Automatic annotation (TrEMBL):
Location of the RNA polymerase sigma-70 region domain: 24-86
Family according to the record: Belongs to the sigma-70 factor family. ECF subfamily.
Keyword RNA-binding found: no
Protein name stated in the entry: RNA polymerase sigma factor
Domain of life: Bacteria
Domain RNA polymerase sigma factor 70 region 4 type: 112-163
SUPFAM superfamilies named among the record's database cross-references: Sigma2 domain of RNA polymerase sigma factors, Sigma3 and sigma4 domains of RNA polymerase sigma factors
Native source organism of the sequence: Cohnella suwonensis
Keywords attached to this entry: DNA-binding, Sigma factor, Transcription, Transcription regulation
């Protein structure tokens, strides 16, 4: 049975061996092409599977599964590259410089930040976390959330202004 013929049946959609095999091969190809350290490919694809399973209800058109999965895998590969770059840049520094670059955040500040983020609506909170916690670029956030880049930039700008107001208040 072709998964496109019965797109309303999620069980049939997600259980076809052919589809899953093709999906895995496509994601692995994208991830290997994008990653600087090829030995991270398995971990990134595994994380992509988790994201796909968590977010499968957000897939609007079932025939777009493979491009959607490839985009998720590509974004996660970019995140892995960025994380490795940060890690390697810290490893290259002398220990004294590394210690001064580290920011040890006290529990009070973290609690206050968590409280401020809790006051925001979920979309705004997600945008800010993607941008400043995970370090995604605006274009990557737009791709993940399926929004225009300009919309993402505007929402982040307004969200930062909102946080400043809440912080001062």
């Amino acid at each position: 049975m072709n998964f496109l013929q019965d797109s309303n049946n999620q069980e049939a959609f997600w259980s076809e061996d052919e589809l899953l095999g093709e999906l895995y091969a496509q994601m692995l190809k994208v991830v290997r092409h994008k990653l600087w350290h090829k030995n991270d490919a398995g971990d990134v694809v595994q994380e992509a599977w988790v994201r796909i399973l968590e977010k499968r209800s957000t897939l609007r058109e079932k025939d777009k599964l493979i491009p959607w999965a490839k985009a998720i895998a590509s974004n996660l590969a970019s995140n892995a590259n960025r994380a490795r770059r940060r890690h390697e840049s810290f490893d290259d520094r002398p220990e004294a410089e590394y210690a001064s670059a580290r920011t040890d955040t006290d529990p009070e500040s973290m609690a206050e930040l968590t409280e401020l983020l809790g006051l925001l609506d979920p979309v705004t909170r997600t945008l800010l976390l993607y941008k400043f916690y995970y370090g995604l670029k605006d274009a990557e956030i737009a791709s993940v959330l399926q929004l225009p880049v300009g919309t993402v930039k505007a929402r982040i700008h307004r969200s930062k202004a909102k946080i400043k107001i809440l912080f001062k208040g």
